[in-house]
Amino acid sequence: MIELHYWPTPNGHKITLFLEEAGLDYEIKPVNISAGEQFRPEFLAIAPNNRMPAIIDRAPADGGEPVSVFESGAILVYLAEKTGKFMPGDLRGRKTVLEWLFWQMGGLGPMAGQNHHFVQYAPERIPYAMERYVKETNRLYGVLNKRLEGRAFINGDDYSIADMACYPWIVPHERQQQNLDDFPNLKRWFTAIAERPATVRAYEKGKAVNTQPTVNEESKKILFGQTAATAPKG
Q1: How many CB atoms lie within 10 A of CB 166?
Q2: pLDDT tens per residue across span 100-125
Q3: Domain 91-195 classification at class level
Q4: Which residues of 3-27 are buried (b: 16+ CB within 10 A; e: fewer)?
Q5: How far apart are CA 51 and CA 149, in angstroms?
Q6: 44-59: buried (b, 16+ CB within 10 Å) or exposed (e) per residue?
Q7: Measured between alpha carbons, how far apart are the two ends of the chain, in Å?
Q8: Half-sphere exposure (Cβ direction) of 143: Cα atoms closer than 13 Å
Q9: HSE-up of 84 (CA within 13 Å, CB side)?
Q10: Domain GST C-terminal spans what residues (predicted)?
Q11: Residue ranges of the domains in the chain?
Q12: Please, which residues bridge with residue 68 across strands?
């Protein structure tokens, strides 16, 4: 049994995508980040960066005590290694999947996240910041579009954790001011993943957890502007 500490955000969706595809038994433990539940001591014990998702594997492969994992990229690698699924076994394929997983973790996610912040949520509109992150998001879409030329998925014919990591960050493309028609390879890939039964199930699980906007005027005080001194200690 996997215990998934989760809220339906792009990073949260990555993990439900994997779990649904792999058919693993799991239980969702909602972490309402708009209410500050990510600062509870019991959550910080498994996710010291006060960010979800995190998991607890109650039946790890070594047969020992439960294993906790935080950071969505690390969770995907852990689950891929646990199940032997969605990670190539050959050196070159594994290398490629990890490259694109790290590309998402270090590029697409953070840049799209800043796009969301300055375009949707910032208390003042800063044209330079908005343009900067919209353009960088556009550049990254172009990188992925090029990679997908002549390929069904990021690693060729095989669906992998790299695809699962990237897809949820493309879902809000309209909010990111991106037009998928400008990226035909990416659009084809995006549509194919959206139609996978496991993807449909994963997003339905998210709707069952929360149907309200995660960010509102009250939650902005919790989600934005934290420092080491001001972040709640749980």
Answers
A1: 27
A2: 999 999 999 999 999 999 999 998 99
A3: mainly alpha
A4: bbbbbbbbbbbbbbbbbbbbebebe
A5: 34
A6: bebbeebbbbbbbbee
A7: 27
A8: 12
A9: 1
A10: 90-223
A11: 2-85+199-223, 91-195
A12: 56
101-107 contact pairs (CB < 8 A, 24+): 101/73, 101/76, 101/77, 101/161, 101/162, 101/165, 102/73, 103/143, 104/73, 104/162, 104/165, 104/166, 104/169, 105/72, 105/73, 105/165, 107/140
Residues belonging to the chain: 234
Fold of 2-85+199-223: Glutaredoxin (3.40.30)
| CA distance readout (Å), 15 to 107, 143, 223 | 19, 24, 21
Radius of gyration of the chain (CA): 18
Using CA atoms, how far apart are residues 52 and 71, in angstroms rounded to an integer? 7
Structure-block tokens of residue 61: 């492969």
> What is the model's pLDDT at position 214?
75
